[in-house]
Amino acid sequence: MDYSTLMLRWVHILAASIAVGSLFYSRFAILPAIEESLDEASQVRMHEAIRKKWLRWVGGMIFFLLVSGLANFLVLNARAKGWGGGDWMKQTHYHLLFGIKFLLALSVFYFSSALIGRSKGTAWVRENRRTFLSLTVLLVLATVLVSGWMRQLHTGPNESSQIDAGASMPESSDSGERSPRQDTGVQPLTPDEKPASDANALPVSDGVDVAKPSSGADSVPDAPSESTETK
Ligand code: HEM
Question: pTM to 2 decimals?
Fold first, then answer.
């Protein structure tokens, strides 16, 4: 197992979870509760009290998301050099998606900081707190959707679905890394095609190039298939 990549994912996903959760909670619980139950002067005091408690969390989230996100991106770029004959990034438009995601994330960072901050330059955001908090919720949702899309481009089948198909991911030949999922738009196999090079190849399952389990370290033990479980 690659522990450094795992650490990066943990940091990134934890920071993202706190960011998404806190934005939803602020928009749909805290803000309406404050507006409904406090007079103007108390609302100002409450927002100031929240600012003091939450500011360092926002700073921390931005820091950890940026550092882990950039590191993730660099690691993936290096790995993807061996995928799809070196053209995987181009074929999947990964960099375009990354650019969109990065801009979305930067706008989330901007509005989150403005909502919790007190600089005069960003007062216009706090004057329309409800609107900009709603906008930030939408932006962070879009960020997560694009992230999921990027992730989906290079994930293999779930372990359970590998087991269901009685199959393991094929290894890429040149780098020794696991190859990216084959249904990413990179020459997927049609149901009539069989992988040319693999004598053990099974028929294509769900558009994914699957092979019989090997007896090597990567093979997975038998488990009840989904169809058995659902019956
Ligand atoms: C609001 C801010 C952000 C949110 C909510 C967010 C959320 C996510 C989520 C949910 C994932 C999927 C994790 C996984 O399944 O492993 C992800 C992956 C990723 N994020 Fe972020 N992220 C944010 C900011 C950033 C930033 C600022 C960068 C870059 C500087 C970045 C770069 C990446 C990269 C490279 C991946 C891996 C995508 C892949 O697997 O192909 N993220 N992010």
Answer: 0.76
